[in-house]
């Protein structure tokens, strides 16, 4: 069965750490099709802005997408599943662009 992911602004990101970096295309898809929450790290001096996108999969795993120095990073509680999540983002953009 294919994994399902949902934008979840209430997901708890405590314990997540940097697990990947999105491609420019993946970043554009996230920024275009998903509404960010305004509770990111607003620390411009360190390169962070105030937006983040929090997703959960069907098993409750959290994928926290945030920008630092203009590049979007993905945080999670482990590296498992991050590549699969990013593939889903690519597919989401492909299907959304055609609809």
Structural summary, described in words:
The protein is an alpha+beta fold. The protein has one domain. The protein is built from 2 helices and 5 strands; from the N terminus they run E-E-H-E-E-E-H. It has helices at 24-33, 82-98; strands at 5-7, 17-21, 48-57, 62-68, 71-76. The protein has a 5-stranded antiparallel beta sheet with strand order 1-3-4-5-2, covered by helices on one side. Strand 4 and strand 5 form a beta hairpin. Helix 1 crosses helix 2. The two termini are 23 Å apart. The model has no long low-confidence stretch (mean pLDDT 90).
Entry summary:
By secondary structure, this protein is an alpha+beta fold. The chain has two helices and five strands, in the order ββαβββα.
What is the share of helical residues?
Answer: 25-40%
Rounded to an integer, what's the Rg over CA atoms? 13 Å
Q: In total, how many beta strands?
A: 5
SSE order, as H and E? EEHEEEH
- For the termini, the CA-CA separation is 23 Å
Overall domain count: 1
SS class: alpha+beta
What is the overall silhouette? globular
